[in-house]
């Protein structure tokens, strides 16, 4: 008996061609064209103009502060994400599911609201900031405040990459290692890490990309003070407000370049995971 052929939506050649054309058109208009325009505008004054805008005193400081915050944020969230993923997937305790849900708070809360919450707590007139002020410690409108909100908005990325993978793998190999007398560090280095390294690297890349490009929360707690608390995304806004359009697009091209490198790294990691 011949197998019955079930037609699906999109099986018709006309429908398939229409959907493909629509997808390519929208991708080009909404994703590719703005990206190309960033680099076209950035090089509007030629290569010399591009280099000159990058070497601008305020832009150089913004690049340095952005990289400084990212360099501190990534290792902090790397440790936090691994610890949290291990805790949630390897132990059973009351409130475990609630804890796994709370990890997603930075995804659910607007970055601007997160910045306001930190300002309310740690600002000069905030609940904690008032007490810190007695010891001449000021976190807001300085790099510690920028670091705090950046760590907050990026903290779920590593944990969210690791938790599903570690739940799927289970803990049998680690239990066998414990039975054989492996220490905690040996267990992590020889058993856990080889199984999670690609997901861990993926989480680190996403964390770094978000830390470099964060705008909303940083804008609230930084004050956008040139050469003091101005990160690269904030510098783009200030240059645009100063009608330095080419300079704004030059700074934007650096962020776009980081995004492209992140996309390439993501593709390579996904390819390695599929062939692992």
From TrEMBL:
It comes from the Bacteria. Keywords: Cell inner membrane, Cell membrane, Membrane, Sulfate transport, Transmembrane, Transmembrane helix, Transport. The complex is composed of two ATP-binding proteins (CysA), two transmembrane proteins (CysT and CysW) and a solute-binding protein (CysP). PANTHER family: SULFATE TRANSPORT SYSTEM PERMEASE PROTEIN, SULFATE TRANSPORT SYSTEM PERMEASE PROTEIN CYSW. It comes from Spiribacter vilamensis. It holds the Pfam family BPD_transp_1. Residues 63-270 form the ABC transmembrane type-1 domain. The keyword Membrane applies. The chain crosses the membrane at residues 20-43, 63-86, 98-121, 141-159, 199-225, 245-265. This is Sulfate transport system permease protein CysW. Part of the ABC transporter complex CysAWTP (TC 3.A.1.6.1) involved in sulfate/thiosulfate import. Probably responsible for the translocation of the substrate across the membrane. It is found in: Cell inner membrane. SUPFAM superfamilies: MetI-like. The keyword Chaperone does not apply. One of its GO terms (cellular component) is plasma membrane. NCBIfam families: 3a0106s02 (TIGR00969), permease_CysW (TIGR02140). It is a multi-pass membrane protein. One of its GO terms (molecular function) is ABC-type sulfate transporter activity. Coiled coil: none annotated.
């Amino acid at each position: 008996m011949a197998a019955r052929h079930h037609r699906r939506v999109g099986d018709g050649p006309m429908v398939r061609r229409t959907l493909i054309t629509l997808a390519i058109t929208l991708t080009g208009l909404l994703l590719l064209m703005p990206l190309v325009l960033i680099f076209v505008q950035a090089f509007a004054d030629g290569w010399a103009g591009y280099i000159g805008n990058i070497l601008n005193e305020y832009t150089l400081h913004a690049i340095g502060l952005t990289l400084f915050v990212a360099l501190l944020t990534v290792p902090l969230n790397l440790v936090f994400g691994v610890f949290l993923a291990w805790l949630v997937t390897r132990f059973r305790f009351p409130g475990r599911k609630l804890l796994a849900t709370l990890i997603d708070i930075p995804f659910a809360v607007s970055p601007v609201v997160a910045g306001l919450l930190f300002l309310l707590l740690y600002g000069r007139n905030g609940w904690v900031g008032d007490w810190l002020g007695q010891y001449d410690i000021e976190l807001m409108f300085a790099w510690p405040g920028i670091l705090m909100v950046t760590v907050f908005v990026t903290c779920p990325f590593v944990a969210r990459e690791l938790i599903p993978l570690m739940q799927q793998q289970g803990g049998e190999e680690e239990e066998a290692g414990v039975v054989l007398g492996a220490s905690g560090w040996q267990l992590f280095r020889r058993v856990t890490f080889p199984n999670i390294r690609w997901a861990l690297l993926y989480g680190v890349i996403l964390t770094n990309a978000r830390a470099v490009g964060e705008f909303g929360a940083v804008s609230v707690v930084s004050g956008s003070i040139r050469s003091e608390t101005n990160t690269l995304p904030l510098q783009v806004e200030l240059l645009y407000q100063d009608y330095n359009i080419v300079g704004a697009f030059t700074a934007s091209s650096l962020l776009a370049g980081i995004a492209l490198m992140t996309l390439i790294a993501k593709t390579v990691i996904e390819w390695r995971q599929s062939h692992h």
